[in-house]
């Protein structure tokens, strides 16, 4: 079974070919970050137009790399939601047009299910059940995953997502957009102990998160320390990163304890963060938990996770054949 996957929910056009026996045959990504940088955030209309320009050339390039023809594709999976309505409609329209022309099934995939299953694209593959931490620019959720399509929401952020907190704090520190990776890089040179930032909801006794107060604490610190010299900027980055990593790590451990599960899967863009990985690895090793990450290239939005989730849905679970986009859509 050969599945073509198309991701266009936000500012990345991703296309991939996943074969159920041979694995990932090709994947291509075009990031629009450079285009949106001058506006300090994603401009939805520009995003949609760029997806239109990129999606077919990326598809052709994938087919070429895999040495296969469009006619060999057995199913087409696309991100049906959540995301930007116009951007989602591009993927939906292209997928459905190809499906109609080829007379092949078209599957609408939940973007977060793609992220959630992306660690299964690499070895070692986590076995079910596992706890998944989804940490991206739009979401921060803990899920109990018992099988394909069997997801239980354990807790989520009540305000900003972790990636959003990284990006907003980076903006306050003049680190550009999206500043998560830049903030994390600068944090490596900083002293995390010079400033003490809050650990929101660390002792709330549940699996909910809150990150907007942390961003406000960064704002206060920036105002207090202005004008910022390079060392202070790096120290604020280090303090921020330490706070967010501590909260994420402790809540993951609490979720493992609550569910009695032994395996933890990290998915979404913030999963690329080195200090988060080091913190989780360290905490898990002490308690004999196993932690799984997607390959770095598949941490952020991509077509491979959508092709894979589509293939899994076709094989093991129900799927949605309805046409269209679902800008707001809960996974569980
Ligand atoms: O999963 P993703 O590509 O898109 C969404 O669905 O949101 O995640 C993007 C988010 C952004 O907020 C970005 O700043 C953050 O992931 N991110 C990072 C790192 N790499 C990406 N945050 C912290 N450290 C990183 N190394
Ligand atoms: Zn994403």
Question: Would you mind describing this structure in some detail?
Answer:
This protein is of the alpha/beta class and 332 residues long. It is built from ten helices and ten strands. The protein has helices at residues 33-37, 44-66, 85-102, 111-117, 162-172, 180-187, 212-225, 230-259, 274-287, 303-316; strands at residues 2-7, 12-19, 23-31, 75-81, 106-110, 130-135, 140-147, 150-156, 263-267, 290-292. β6 and β7 form a beta hairpin. The site of 5'-O-[(R)-(carboxyoxy)(hydroxy)phosphoryl]adenosine (KG4) has 18 residues, from α5 and α6.
Short description:
This protein has 332 residues and is an alpha/beta fold. The chain contains ten helices and ten strands.
| Helix and strand sequence | EEEHHEHEHEEEHHHHEHEH
Evaluate the radius of gyration. 20 Å
The biggest beta sheet reads: 5 strands, mixed
Helical content band: 40-55%
Mean pLDDT: 95
Please report the distance between the alpha carbons of the first and last residues: 27 Å
Bound molecules: 5'-O-[(R)-(carboxyoxy)(hydroxy)phosphoryl]adenosine, zinc ion
The assigned structural class equals: alpha/beta
**Beta content:** 15-25%
What is the count of β-strands?
10
Poorly predicted regions: none
Treating each run of at least 4 consecutive H or I residues as one helix, how many helices? 10
Q: Outline, from the CA principal axes? A: globular
- If strands are numbered along the chain, what order do they take across the biggest sheet? 3-2-1-4-5
